[in-house]
Amino acid sequence: MTSQPQRLNFAGHSGASLSARLDLPNGPIRAFALFAHCFTCSKDLVAIRRIGAELARMGVAVLRFDFTGLGSSEGEFSSTNFSSNVADIVSAADYLRQHFEAPSVLIGHSLGGAAVLSASKRIPETRAVVTIGAPSDASHVLKLVSGSDRSKIDGDGSTDVRIGERTFKISRQFVEDVCREPLEEDIASLRKPILIMHAPRDEIVGIDNATEIFLAAKHPKSFISLDAADHLLSDPADAAFVGQAIAGWLSRYLPADKPEEDDVHTDVRVMETGEGRFQNMVRAGRHRLFADEPEKVGGLDTGPTPYDFLSIALGGCTSMTLRLYAERRNIPLGLISVDVTHEKVHAVDCIECATGETPDAKIDRFTRTITVAAALTDELGAKIVEIANKCPVHRTLETSSVVTTSVATTLVSAPPRS
After folding, report:
1. Can you give the residue range of the structural domain that contains 351?
2. I need a labelling partner for 48 at 20 to 30 A (CA). Which of 183, 321, 349, 377 fits?
3. Is 30 part of any domain?
């Protein structure tokens, strides 16, 4: 299985082609998750992309798709309703089951949260459910329809309703469908671990909905407050927190993240996520994290920069080398910390660097400060510097290295740039 992000299409409940995005982890997959977006939203909402990236970083593959008539999917929105959304989720699960692996995690935002609660009973492989700002009853969506528009729907059978910055045709059958779809029974019969996430000041779906879902659900059930987040999680920090919190919560209910049989710990794989200009997923053995750049240079600031990783390597290797030396010689150094700064300096300015470079050339200088929780003598301080300079990464940085490069290709469409 390729580990590149994929654009996919599958048949929805009506046969219309639904547009989807599968965010795959960099390395072994712990589980597949289905993500259902909010009413009139799309799979490409910034918050959903951020949450998908966070989960993929933790080894969870996420399929997010546009419901019938929304986003890039085919079909007419006016012919859809809550029941058809549930049916689309089941179709998405069927697609994953046939082509990859059935989803064991269902995640839904807003009305999508209500939809996954209803769909879970039709997806037997479900092991955990997550709702984000979800209503406790599907009919809550009618609060977005004004009284005058509701009268037109009742009288004419349908009308155009302005929701946010777009206009949608809402029909009488949509209204009737959401009014007869009880969720309390679905929630009570779920009997799967459920995580309910909601912002106390959500102005679209009030916090009382989270209370009702929590009270109706059986244990194990968990609630996480999203503090000052808005309904659409428009602040990237809120979306990242949601993704990280879901990943941490799911760790109790998913298989352990183990390296592949042929994994070599010295192999590191770095892969673009498609989020922002520079965000990459990094896999080193079974460890996963982001590499990125600061916001001031166009990044998302979701992880260390490449040069930060170099400094991390030097600092980590220095500390570990000193720890081994202290244990062998029974020297009580206490806790060791290493501060590393990196800068580009002119070769002529670097007195301690005998490089042979031209005066205008710039070289990399790492400044390392080692702190130990022990009384220092001049002799011990000199010995610490001597041992630190024998750290393998230190030697690598000070020795010329050879980098060999080859190029490969995958026949997978590249993810859209943010």
Report:
1. 306-398
2. 183
3. yes
